[in-house]
Amino acid sequence: MQIRKANSSDLPEIISLLKASLGESLIPKSEELWNWKHVANPFGASPLLIAEDAGLICGVRVFLRWEFRQGDQLIKACRAVDTAIHPDYQGKGLFKNLTLSLIEELKEEGVEMIYNTPNAQSSSGYLKMGWEKWGKLPLKMHFNLNLGKSKNLSQSSDWSSITGLIQKIEKTEFDSEQIQTNLVSGYLHWRYVSCPLFPYDFVSDGESYLLIYRIKEGKIGRELRIVDFFQLADFGKNEKKQLNTRLKTIQKNESVRFTSYSGLKFTNDLPIEMGIMPVMSIGPEVTLRKVAATDNLLEKDWGWSLGDLEVF
């Protein structure tokens, strides 16, 4: 058996292996999704290893490149995402071998850490390979008690109308001391506009703030899930009032049962009106793994948004 870096000609067989190993589930296995996630990513192409036996690709392990920033400090990271082992090769340690081999390669590139949000089934395997539990993101929920019939008045957001604002946000040096995603040029368009998984919409005045959300169908009704929020220096009381008025209109038009906001920005005077329910630690569980970092990752001042941690 040979472990090697993949090349573009391997992609059709990789997609077939993902389907055979994982099925389609809620996330389709397609070349379109793969190219968006692992090729078009503004942080760079994904590092990828495959295991090959007698000409057959029997294992795939890939990390998604990411960058964080804390002030002037850039933190190179990866997110552990796609992995697949052919059913005939499962239970033989191939997943662990591929994962640890890829980590060794990342050390040479100066990648400091890997993060992910594993499910209950995969969490124990990651912990055995050196991952540590950071904990669950706080989650704030607000239920709409005056739920009416959907008026379907909301239209899909015209992202082209806020091109200037997006460029302004990506060029702004935010003064937060928290560690947040490095907003490189093209990040917001890649992450939200061209994402093939979910349709994202926004609320904005086009000048001082941008709230990004998606509507999600659930067992208890429609959810308005806020995934990211950016405010610039000229965001004030009038803009805050406008933002919350527009949100209420969307909630009504879309028959939203509840609105959710998960992340680490609740201590920063969140301008979104989310009712009196307490913040609960029931969001995605985050795990971290050192690669080249020397300090304690668990004690760092993280400022994740849900957009950084959504499963995709």
Total E-strand runs = 13
Distance between the terminal alpha carbons, to the nearest Å? 30 Å
Strand-and-helix sequence, N→C? EHHEEEHEHEEHEHEEEHEEH
Mean pLDDT: 91
Percent of residues in beta strands? 25-35%
CATH class of the largest domain: Alpha Beta
> For this structure, what is the CATH homologous superfamily of the largest domain?
Gcn5-related N-acetyltransferase (GNAT)
> What coarse outline follows from CA principal-axis ratios?
globular
What would you call the structural class?
alpha+beta
- Detail the poorly predicted runs: none
Quaternary structure type = single chain
Keywords: Transferase
Organism: Algoriphagus chordae
Protein name: Acetyltransferase (GNAT) family protein
Domain N-acetyltransferase: 1-154
Description:
The protein folds into two domains: 148 residues, Aminopeptidase (3-Layer(aba) Sandwich); 130 residues, Aminopeptidase. The model has no long low-confidence stretch (mean pLDDT 91). Strand 11, helix 7 and strand 12 form a beta-alpha-beta unit. Strands 1, 2, 3, 4, 5, 6, 8 and 13 form an eight-stranded mixed sheet that branches. The protein has a five-stranded mixed sheet with strand order 7-12-11-10-9, with helices on both faces. It is built from eight helices and 13 strands. The longest helix is centred in the last third of the chain and has 17 residues. The chain is an alpha+beta fold and 312 residues long. Helix content is 26%, strand content 29%.
